[in-house]
Amino acid sequence: MDFELFHELLFKTGIMHLTVGHVVMWLIGCLFIFLAIKKGFEPLLLVPIGFSIFLVNMPIAPLTGPGELINLFFKYGLETEIIPCLIFLGIGALTDFGPMIANPKTLLLGASAQLGVYIAFFGSILFGFSLKEAASIGIIGGADGPTTIYLASALAPHMVGMVAVAAYSYMSMVPLIQPPIMKLLTTKEERKIRMKQLRPVSRLERIVYPLVATVVICLLTPAAAPIMGLFMIGNLFRECGVVDRLLKTSQNELLNLVTIILGIAVGSTMKAEIFLRPQPLFIFLLGLVAFAFSTVAGVLLAKIMNLFLKEKINPLIGSAGVSAVPMAARVSQKIGFEADPQNHLLMHAMGPNVAGVIGTAVAAGTFLSLLK
Amino acid sequence: MWSEALRIGVIGFSVVFITLLILTLSVKVMSFVCKRIEKKRSK
Question: Furthest-apart CA pair in chain A: how many Å?
Answer without folding.
Answer: 91
